[in-house]
Design a protein that fits this description.
Elements (H helix, E strand, L loop, with lengths): L1 H5 L4 H37 L5 H8 L3 H17 L2 H21 L9 H4 L1 H15 L6 H36 L3 H9 L3 H25 L5 H28 L3 H22 L2 H20 L1 H21 L7
Helix pairs in contact: 2-3, 2-4, 2-7, 2-8, 4-13, 5-7, 5-10, 5-11, 7-10, 11-12, 12-13
Length: 323
């Protein structure tokens, strides 16, 4: 098949397309793993709360076909989005995440960040792979190895999620399933595990993003002309979003924030970017909206949890450790 395509397309372009497809697939697997682990955590949390039974049943619904559709759609989006725009999205989310964490009260929690970072995570993984494998003699084979590992982890996380939704409650009562008993003792540590993994991932992605953006500049003056408006734009966007989310923290605000962020990047790239960047911004807008729609019920659950924990922290100090 590849040789047939190469008859109509240049060899270098075809190889680049295959590599972009593999990078996009790894990024999509990372997003699916994050979403599945968060769904497991929220499901067990709702299971332990008698007032959250309706939310538990909503999370419990099996969607194996839709999970695979989600993976395919994300793979296509990350394949089409260029590294330049992907790098800008990674840097924007990193600044937004740092600002959100610093603005939290002591003892507060923002579990929404684990879901709001999904698209940025996929862009970060794709950009990191593109930068780290650039110029490698066996780049495609290295990416194939990464795809194999990512698909294996995704498969096992999906199997774990299916097992938790169907058997966790029964196995915890009967006390005979090692996996469910392990989750019973450690489920509250899933956010910390994800937090550590995201710190490493975005740390590498930020370095790769800066390197990918700077390689397009021939001189320092060109870099300054790009980074100065970009820094101002990002700072204003972060201040605006922090104020809006503080006064109106709902699902509609999450979608409004996406349009504001992508609109700001679109205006910026229309002045200092390339025409390809504008197309990539529109694709990224669709990707962000897709991720928000996909995790809508989990976002609402996290939002309610964050509000209740923040209220506890403001009235009685740092909230107690979860059991």
């Amino acid at each position: 098949m590849l040789s047939w395509v190469q008859g109509f397309l240049p060899l270098a372009w075809t190889a680049s397309l295959v590599d972009s497809l593999l990078e996009g697939l790894v990024g999509a697997c990372a997003v699916c793993i994050l979403g599945s682990l968060m769904r497991i955590y929220l499901y067990i949390r709702c299971l332990n709360d008698p007032e959250r039974q309706k939310e538990k049943e909503a999370l419990r619904q099996q969607r194996s076909f839709l999970d695979r559709l989600h993976l395919v759609v994300l793979m296509a989006i990350f394949t089409m989005v260029g590294h330049r725009v992907g790098a800008l999205i990674v840097l924007e989310f990193s600044l937004r995440a740092v600002s959100t964490i610093l603005s939290l009260n002591k003892g507060a929690l923002n579990s929404q960040l684990y879901l709001l970072c999904q698209y940025s995570l996929g862009c970060g993984v794709s950009c990191s792979l593109g930068y780290l494998q650039e110029g490698a003699p066996h780049r495609t084979w290295n990416l194939l190895l990464g795809v194999g590992l990512a698909m294996l982890l995704t498969h096992y996380v999906w199997r774990l999620a299916w097992h938790v939704y169907t058997m966790y409650e029964l196995h915890c009562k009967e006390r005979y399933c090692g996996g469910c008993l392990f989750l019973l003792a450690t489920w509250h540590g899933i956010p910390r595990l994800l937090c550590n993994a995201l710190r490493v991932t975005f740390g590498v992605a930020d370095l790769a993003a800066v390197a990918l953006i700077n390689r397009d500049f021939l001189s320092t003056s060109e870099a300054i002309r790009f980074w100065t408006p970009l820094t101002i734009c990002y700072t204003l966007l972060v201040i605006y979003m922090q104020e809006e989310q503080h006064h109106n923290p709902n699902q509609q605000m999450a979608f409004q924030t996406v349009f504001v962020r992508m609109g700001g990047l679109l205006v910026l790239l229309m002045t200092v970017g390339q025409w390809r960047d504008i197309v990539d911004i529109l694709i990224s807008l669709a990707g962000e909206i897709w991720c928000l729609i996909w995790s809508g019920s989990m976002l609402e659950l996290c939002r309610n949890q964050d509000e209740s924990l923040s209220l506890q922290a403001s009235t009685s100090g740092p909230f107690p450790r979860q059991r």
